[in-house]
Amino acid sequence: MSAGFPFPLIATDLDGTLLRSDESISRRTRDALAAATAAGAAHIIVTGRAVPWTRHILDDLGYDGLAVCGQGAQVYDAGAHRLLTSVTLDRQLAGVALAKLEAEVGPLYLAASRDGLDGEVLVGPGYAVTGNLPATPFTDAADLWSAPLNKVYIQHPTLGDDELADVARRVAGGFVTVAMAGAGIVELLPLGLSKATGLSLAARRLGVKAAGTIAFGDMPNDIPMFAWAAHGVAMANAHEELRAVADEVTASNEEDGIAAVLERLLP
User: Fold this and answer.
1) d(C-alpha 191, C-alpha 20), whole Å
2) Which of 16, 193, 253, 260 sits most deeply, having the most CB atoms within 10 A of its CB?
3) Rounded Cα–Cα distance for residues 143 and 124 (Å)
């Protein structure tokens, strides 16, 4: 254990957790994280976003540690701007998973995240990108599969996120991992991959164990990270599935929920 802070590792999700809705991080939260790291803790950002959609936030934070990106697929050294590990989706299995799913629910709107530091996010007709993030449109499905991918995003014209994720797990769960990461964000990932996979790799590099980790999150894709960490803190705005497995619930991302917990734990 670090002398000054009871958890040697602080793992935070980004969207809905560390970030406010305008993608900013409050001064109070920045100060609380700085105080915790000054007291001996390490901070790792663990996000569903792939590196190209995360890097600008890390740079703005002045963050130079490790980040787990792409739902656990990528361990990224922000200080060196270097990918340390990257797991890609088996495109053949993903194609089978999509075919099974579309046979069940009809045509889906698709997007996909290409592997690598500068991997584009490809967006097909009908797919609605949340926020103001860079994306490359495609119309020919062959383009989707032409280079290595970290994940495929799926949306349905009428099914809600929970329902789509449930059906995807039922019909395609033997081929891919299905994660729900936010409003309109249901993802097909390499089988067995989760935030816990990437976090355990990053923690090992830092010499920190699960027993010394406190984790903050807001969506069902954070459940494996909570299961791995010693203490899981859900935001007040968290999905009910995550709240159900959390060790505690703090204030929302808009109300400095992370800072409230860190300040309490600081000496």
Assistant:
1) 31
2) 253
3) 10
Cα–Cα distance measured from residue 253 to residue 236, given in angstroms and rounded to the nearest whole number? 8
Residue 112 has φ and ψ, to the nearest 5°, of -155, 150
Helix (H) or strand (E) holding 62: none
Tokens 């990437």 found at: 198
Tens digit of each residue's pLDDT (9 = 90 or more) over 109-124: 999 999 999 999 999 9
Structure-token pair, residue 253: 């991302």
Residue 3 has pLDDT above 70, yes or no: no
Task: Identify residue 126 by its one-letter amino acid code.
Answer: G
For the residues of 113-133, what is the DSSP string, one character each?
A: EESSTTPPEEE-TT----SS-
For the chain, count helices (H), then strands (E).
Answer: 9, 14
CB 40 within 8 A of CB 75: no
> Residue 203 and residue 63: Cα distance in Å, rounded?
16
